[in-house]
Amino acid sequence: MAVYSQADLDALDVAISSKGAIKKVRIEDREVEFRDVSEMLEIRRHIERQLRNKKRSALGRRHTFAFKKAIE
Length: 72
Fold this sequence. Notes:
The chain has two helices and two strands, in the order αββα. By secondary structure, the chain is mainly alpha-helical. The chain has a two-stranded antiparallel sheet.
């Protein structure tokens, strides 16, 4: 599984904002050439999901309990 960084997402954003003028992007220490902007947007969504999931797992799970009545 690929390990993406925020820098990968930022590089992709620069290429997307160029409206297709930039087709090669360095992602994960590899140079990737895209056919068009829609392909860039697809991989951008994938990287963003991966980063979001990585951030969630780093925070850990939090549980909140609510009790209606005290136990006697």
